[in-house]
Automatic annotation (TrEMBL):
<dbReference type="Pfam" id="PF00775">
    <property type="entry name" value="Dioxygenase_C"/>
</dbReference>
<keyword id="KW-0479">Metal-binding</keyword>
<protein>
    <submittedName>
        <fullName>Catechol 1,2-dioxygenase</fullName>
        <ecNumber>1.13.11.-</ecNumber>
    </submittedName>
</protein>
<feature type="compositionally biased region" description="Low complexity">
    <location>
        <begin position="9"/>
        <end position="20"/>
    </location>
</feature>
<comment type="similarity">
    <text>Belongs to the intradiol ring-cleavage dioxygenase family.</text>
</comment>
<dbReference type="InterPro" id="IPR050770">
    <property type="entry name" value="Intradiol_RC_Dioxygenase"/>
</dbReference>
<dbReference type="GO" id="GO:0018576">
    <property type="term" value="F:catechol 1,2-dioxygenase activity"/>
</dbReference>
<dbReference type="InterPro" id="IPR015889">
    <property type="entry name" value="Intradiol_dOase_core"/>
</dbReference>
<feature type="region of interest" description="Disordered">
    <location>
        <begin position="1"/>
        <end position="37"/>
    </location>
</feature>
<keyword id="KW-0223">Dioxygenase</keyword>
<feature type="domain" description="Catechol dioxygenase N-terminal">
    <location>
        <begin position="40"/>
        <end position="106"/>
    </location>
</feature>
<dbReference type="InterPro" id="IPR000627">
    <property type="entry name" value="Intradiol_dOase_C"/>
</dbReference>
<keyword id="KW-0408">Iron</keyword>
<dbReference type="GO" id="GO:0008199">
    <property type="term" value="F:ferric iron binding"/>
</dbReference>
<dbReference type="GO" id="GO:0009712">
    <property type="term" value="P:catechol-containing compound metabolic process"/>
</dbReference>
<dbReference type="InterPro" id="IPR007535">
    <property type="entry name" value="Catechol_dOase_N"/>
</dbReference>
<feature type="compositionally biased region" description="Basic and acidic residues">
    <location>
        <begin position="22"/>
        <end position="37"/>
    </location>
</feature>
Length: 288
């Protein structure tokens, strides 16, 4: 086996942006899904967004220099492949809020740009694919999927997360293809047990156009450490969520505004240095 490159040395905004853009195009048929949208709705949405832009320009007397800087920046976001990153960090959380507001069970959180379908199938009890000596505190997670009436569900959990350096496989170079990506399935009792490691807080790439905006506005680029999940079961609405760790300094100021109190974990240290935790998912029946 060849020596792995270190992601820390070689990850770049352009590379992870290009991967995220390519992945989005590979997975989704976004125009097909809205092909029956009437022109009245397109007109209303486009007009109201433009009205908001016009109002900001008038209110703050935006200059031609500022307009040209905006134009150059928007062009560069595309050239860096950073539209998935920009939209998922600064817009998706409100789409998610609107989409799941009606639910009685878990409401969820943003998907972000780094989901990959068809990760390795690991059954109801399993260990995430990881390198030998993968860094990070081992985590043993006992969980269950139930319906809103409390009945256990035979379903599926897809889990993906960053490593202890904050890097995602298939988006940062040098990591094994399915590192820290796995699919688990529950039986009729709804139970699962997943062994993985604690991810690190994640900094969105700072060397591209989004990083330029963050620096120019005096913001920070951090997301708190998080586990991404997609949970599904027949006859139920699928859940996309993220789970967070208490005490992370960025739980309170997540750049992606994607933390909710119901998504907080409670890991407990065990004598062997690992941590044990429980988190149960509650899915809404379709059409309830
Ligand atoms: C981004 C990365 C994430 O891991 C995430 O959960 C949300 C957004 C990003 O880089 O845009
Ligand atoms: Fe993430």
């Amino acid at each position: 086996m060849t020596t792995m490159e270190s992601p820390a040395e070689h990850a770049s905004a352009a590379a992870s942006g290009a991967s995220a853009t390519e992945r989005f195009h590979a997975d989704k048929s976004p125009f097909e899904a809205v092909k029956d949208t009437p022109p009245e709705r397109v007109d209303m949405l486009a007009r109201e967004v433009l009205d908001a832009v016009h109002a900001t320009i008038r209110k703050h007397k935006v200059s031609y220099d500022e307009y040209n800087a905006l134009k150059a920046w928007l062009i560069n976001v595309g050239q860096d492949g950073e539209w998935p990153l920009f939209l998922d960090v600064w817009v998706e959380h409100v789409v998610e809020e609107v989409a799941t507001d009606h639910r009685q069970g878990n409401k969820g959180s943003i998907e972000g740009p780094y989901y990959v379908p068809d990760s390795p199938e690991l059954g109801a009890v399993g260990t995430m694919p990881m390198r030998e000596n993968e860094a990070g505190t081992p985590l043993v997670w006992d969980g269950r999927i139930t319906s809103t009436d409390g009945k256990p569900l035979a379903g599926k959990i897809e889990l993906w997360h960053a490593d202890a350096d904050g890097f995602y496989s298939q988006f940062a170079p040098g990591l094994p293809e399915w590192n820290l990506r796995g699919s688990f399935s529950t039986g009729a009792d709804g139970n699962f047990q997943i062994t993985t490691i604690r991810p690190a807080p994640y900094q969105i790439p700072t060397d591209g156009s989004c990083g330029k905006l963050i620096a120019a506005a005096g913001w920070h680029a951090w997301r708190p450490a998080h586990l991404h999940v997609k949970v599904s079961a027949p006859g139920h609405e699928s859940l996309t969520a993220q789970l967070y760790f208490p005490g992370d300094p960025h739980n309170a100021d997540d750049i992606a505004s994607a933390v909710k109190p119901e998504l907080m974990l409670d890991p407990q240290p065990r004598p062997d240095g690992s941590e044990a935790m429980t988190y149960y998912f509650v899915l809404d029946p379709v059409g309830a």
